[in-house]
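Example 9 (inverse folding). The structure is encoded as follows.
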């Protein structure tokens, strides 16, 4: 692990602790909004912000319950919101230390040699063999495993540069990858689309870098794998993040800043127009729920005024 990586991980650990310490305060804000009879859109924004940031810091239970609250607001079911807030309070208050534990081995991760051509496919599907042959034909060393135990054994011997896991194995396999020595630098993809609400939540925090919705599109998968091995540009891309949650922004700043990107955060959409023109970002991260303006409107404006910027929705 480089000194920069160690510093970033230390910073993220501190930010996670700070977020956990502020959980009661954030839950209290939702309670106050309910007692004051605030509009459901504002309450939804509070639930959404809590859920997204909790998922970012890998607090799965908090994120799942907060997303339930957001869904209730979307469906205009105000009656059940107090019970959801009580569940959140029960999770956050009694044993905060339990949610502070970091992933095993986080301090032991190291870089892979760039351009490694080793691929691990975790899938029990018959199509995995077809994918293995196709990937191997491009000059990659390919391992196929059908269970988490076998994947762990493979990671203990050597971390593959690229990991592809079927949706039923993805969460456990990719989590094991990230917890393994050197696993932080690997590229991980999910093969297939999560089918249930629980699966979608688990995919958010397991550390996947992307997903292949069509597991039968072998050519597209191979093309992406080959692209993952290309040498990155030496230029420093600019990233603008528009989000009003300071804990989430702090995490994004730590990760992207530590990776060498030029990062700028904006917490008020009122200043979006001027900031977009002055900063000229290559990538725009937009919160799905913004006060006073919709993400769609902001994305359309960015596309019109700055055609080079890619837009990514943030949780």
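The amino acid assigned to each position is listed next.
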């Amino acid at each position: 692990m480089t000194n920069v990586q160690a510093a970033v991980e230390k910073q993220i650990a501190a930010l996670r602790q700070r977020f956990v310490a502020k959980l009661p305060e954030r839950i209290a804000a939702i309670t106050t909004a309910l007692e004051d009879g605030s509009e459901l859109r504002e309450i939804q924004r509070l639930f959404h912000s809590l859920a997204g940031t909790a998922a970012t810091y890998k607090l799965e239970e908090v994120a799942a319950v907060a997303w339930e609250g957001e869904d209730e607001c979307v469906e205009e079911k105000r009656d059940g919101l107090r019970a959801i807030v009580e569940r959140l309070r029960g999770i956050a208050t009694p044993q905060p230390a339990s949610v502070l534990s970091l992933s095993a081995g986080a301090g032991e991760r190291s870089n892979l040699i760039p351009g490694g051509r080793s691929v691990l496919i975790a899938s029990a599907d018959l199509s995995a063999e077809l994918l293995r042959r196709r990937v191997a034909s491009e000059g990659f060393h390919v391992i196929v495993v059908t269970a988490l135990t076998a994947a762990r054994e493979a990671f203990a011997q050597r971390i593959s540069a690229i990991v592809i896991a079927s949706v039923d194995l993805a969460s456990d396999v990719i989590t094991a990858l990230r917890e393994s020595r050197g696993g932080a630098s690997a590229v991980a993809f999910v093969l297939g689309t999560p089918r249930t609400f629980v699966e979608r939540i688990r995919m958010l925090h397991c550390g996947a870098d992307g997903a292949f919705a069509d597991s039968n599109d072998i050519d597209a998968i191979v093309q992406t794998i080959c692209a993952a091995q290309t040498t990155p540009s030496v230029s420093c891309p600019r990233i603008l993040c528009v989000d009003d949650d300071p804990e989430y922004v702090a995490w994004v700043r730590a990760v992207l800043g530590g990776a060498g990107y030029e990062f700028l955060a904006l917490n008020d959409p009122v200043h979006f127009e001027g900031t977009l023109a002055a900063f000229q970002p290559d990538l725009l991260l937009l919160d799905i729920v913004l006060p006073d303006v919709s993400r769609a409107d902001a994305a359309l404006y960015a596309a019109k005024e700055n055609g080079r910027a890619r837009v990514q929705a943030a949780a």
